Amino acid sequence: MRFVTTPAELDALAPFSADGSAGSRAVVMTMGALHEGHLALVRAAREANDQVVATIFVNPLQFDDANDLQRYPRTLEADAQLLEDAGVDVLFAPNVETVYPGGDPVVRVSAGTLGDVLEGAHRPGHFDGVLTVVLKLLNLTRPDRAYFGQKDAQQLLAIRAMVRDLNVPVDVIGVPTQRDPDGLALSSRNVHLSASERASALSLSRSLEAVTAALELGEPLADALTDGRRVLDATEGVQVDYLEAMNPADAQPLPAGYRGDAVIAVAARVGATRLIDNVPVRIG
Predict the structure, then answer these.
(1) Active-site residue, from 38, 122, 126, 192
(2) Are 141 and 14 in contact (CB under 8 A)?
(3) pLDDT at 70
(4) 181, part of any domain
(5) Which CATH number covers residue 97?
(6) Domain range enclosing 208
(7) Please, which residues bridge with residue 25 across strands?
(8) What's the domain count of the chain?
(9) What is the pLDDT of residue 187?
(10) Mean pLDDT taken over the chain
(11) Percent of the chain scoring above 70 in pLDDT
């Protein structure tokens, strides 16, 4: 695996196919503190591309809390070994000055209405920061395909909308959420959970299971969401931001009587750690 920190070094590593012709490149963007969820993205990319580039960059634009940015785990050496073992060809790990050479960018990508609901409502400006750095990294790495986890459902939706609306020449591939055997969605933030907090954090996935089970029994959506909320409210140490159903096309709330595909999304703070999860469902 080649380790590079500048765009010039990355440009010198063009992908080639087995016959020597120009090959396909995939990118997996991360902020480090890697876990099995990130490695699942790498494996999916490895199966379909000649070259896999992974990026590690802790993006300050997407943190609305300076303490959260400071607390974000940074484990570059261990991450590099995991990526090499998983088959990454190039690790691109630029510093802040490389990605934002003029300081905080004056021009940024706006998430529009996607940034006004759910995660966007609770973290103002978050998706603008995500989309800005994703577009910059797409321009720097110039991949054919980019792989993102479905655990960040609203983020994946926003990235797909940006690629479509701005005519970015890349295929965006979603990879299913990876979970521990007990159901907890993998997240770099899980390292901050104490043993008791981790037990409480299981209420997020269990609330989604309760909603899904209720919908499968034919309960109205509002009643199913109430069932899920009971699971969260009954768990000590969990402060809920939302448990909602969103339209998978635009992340907006579902109208009364909606039938079709949906995403049930949950966000909550367990102790000092904020976690999210979601599950796709079919209503009706």
Answers:
(1) 38
(2) no
(3) 87
(4) no
(5) 3.40.50.620
(6) 188-283
(7) 51
(8) 2
(9) 95
(10) 96
(11) 100
> Model confidence over 152-185: pLDDT tens digits?
999 999 999 999 999 999 999 999 999 999 999 9
Answer yes or no: is 180 within a domain: no
Element (H, E) at 266: strand 260-270
Q: Is 192 a catalytic residue?
A: no
User: For helices 126-141 and 153-165, what crossing angle results, to 10°?
Assistant: 60
Please, which pLDDT band fits residue 256 given cuts at 50, 70 and 90? confident
| DSSP result, 68-124 | HHHHS---HHHHHHHHHHHT-SEEE---HHHHSTTSS-SS----GGGGSSTHHHHST
Question: What is the structure's pLDDT at 63?
Answer: 87
Return the amino acid letter for 260. Answer: G
Q: State the residue for tokens 């997407």.
A: 62
Question: Are residue 10 and residue 66 in the same domain, yes or no?
Answer: yes
End-to-end CA, the chain: 48
With beta carbons less than 8 A apart as the criterion, state whether 248 and 157 touch. Answer: yes
pLDDT mean over 103-113 = 95
